[in-house]
Design a protein that fits this description.
With 352 residues, the chain is of the alpha+beta class. It is 25% helix and 29% strand. An eight-stranded mixed β-sheet has the order 7-6-5-8-3-2-9-10. The chain has a five-stranded mixed β-sheet with strand order 11-12-15-13-14, with helices on both faces. It binds adenosine-5'-diphosphate (ADP) and magnesium ion. Magnesium ion (MG) binds next to helix 1.
Length: 352
């Protein structure tokens, strides 16, 4: 069943990176265990995301790329207990408006007969044809921003920076998702396709990191498993402070971090990955604390960081920015103070 809902927000597709992120998240939401991301000319020509997820059922073809159609949200109240990445039903309609947009999809029960769907800029389904396919969905985006010349030119001008951003976000998904085979490849306009990195359906994030960044990375890593306590004096989302209305919240930070020892492999800052309950995001304030504490031991390097902040969903809000990469945390300053203390304790406990 589909739900039309009325969450107002800005554009979800602001750049190349948001395209990739929305498509990968749709594949994850569809329960994929295998995802292939294929770029042509760093995405300037095309971006293709193929998954082995649920596929799309026929009754949803017509509405697939219409604004605000989502299959993931039953009621508005569900927003607070959201398990899926997507919920706004905006990505595909935006992509349709901004590029040539094609979908090939197949339910398990229909394999090896799938459907190829083509859409008009408005999101209206323009054609359906039968093609050979396996269970899952492939979404293809060609000529991103082709109908917005200013944005297209800007994308081309900044492609190097955009591409780096795309790769680091894909690194994040590849490293956090266990049990997923994830591969990313790129084909230059003239030349052959190259696999940039791939994970093998590993059981641990450690193995994912080895697949993505190489085994050498491990030689500098120690496990990160910090338990922070946050004493709330005000319930999240509540203004008034009530006396005796205290609550202790447990926050756990799990992952991997460089051991601060001199002379070991230099890490680059783009290998700093943050997640909130497994959702990749940018957390510059957290990065700052990690970097500061690390640098007090090892001034000349920055650490490799893979940190998943696990906490109650009422302690944060992902609905702040359309791309959901900015996350608003309750009582962030106190959380960061606690983190600083815990990190110092972790590094102190290492023998050098
Ligand atoms: P949202 O993810 O917020 O629901 P999207 O515009 O990203 O909105 O996608 C619209 C709908 O299309 C989804 O709700 C889902 O039903 C379907 N969909 C998109 N991508 C896939 C996919 N890879 N596999 C299965 N269904 C998909
Ligand atoms: Mg989506």
């Amino acid at each position: 069943a589909r739900t039309v809902h009325q969450i107002q927000s800005g554009q979800v597709i602001v750049d190349l990176c948001s395209v990739v992120k929305e498509l990968v998240e749709n594949s994850l939401d569809a329960g994929a265990t295998n995802i292939e991301v294929r770029f042509k000319n760093q995405g300037l020509d095309s971006i293709e995301v193929q998954d082995n997820g649920s596929g799309i059922s026929k009754e949803n073809y017509e509405t697939l790329a219409l604004k605000h159609y989502t299959s993931k949200l039953a009621t508005y109240a569900d927003l607070t207990s959201l398990q899926t990445f997507g919920f706004r039903g905006e990505a595909l309609s935006s992509l349709c408006a901004l590029s040539k947009f094609t979908v090939i999809t197949c339910l398990a029960s229909d394999a090896p007969k799938g459907s190829k769907l083509e859409f008009e800029t408005s999101g209206k389904l323009s054609s359906t044809s039968v093609v050979a396919a396996q269970k899952g969905t492939t979404v293809c985006i060609e000529g991103l921003f082709k109908n917005l010349p200013v944005r297209r030119r800007e994308l081309e001008r900044n492609i190097k920076r955009e591409w780096n951003k795309v790769i680091s976000v894909l690194n994040q998904y590849a490293c956090i998702q266990t049990g997923l085979k994830f591969s990313v490849s790129q084909q230059p306009t003239k030349g052959k396709r190259m696999v940039l990195f791939s994970t093998k359906g590993n059981q641990t994030t450690r193995e994912n990191i080895v697949n993505v960044f190489g085994a050498k990375t491990l030689t500098v890593l120690i496990p990160l498993d910090l338990e922070l306590e946050l004493e709330l004096t005000t319930a999240p989302g509540q203004r008034r402070k009530l006396q005796d209305d205290r609550e202790i919240k447990q926050i756990r930070i799990r992952g991997h971090v460089s051991r601060p020892a001199h002379g070991e492999g230099r890490q680059t800052p783009d290998r700093q990955m943050f997640f909130v309950n497994g959702r990749p995001c940018g957390l510059p304030q957290f990065a700052k604390v990690f970097n500061e504490v690390y640098k007090s031991y090892n001034a000349s390097q920055s650490p490799f960081i893979f940190a998943d902040i696990q906490l109650d969903t009422d302690l944060y809000d992902v609905n702040v920015s359309p791309d959901k990469r900015t996350i608003l945390l309750h009582d962030q300053t106190r959380m960061l103070d606690n983190l600083r203390e815990a990190l110092v304790a972790l590094f102190e406990s290492q023998d050098y």
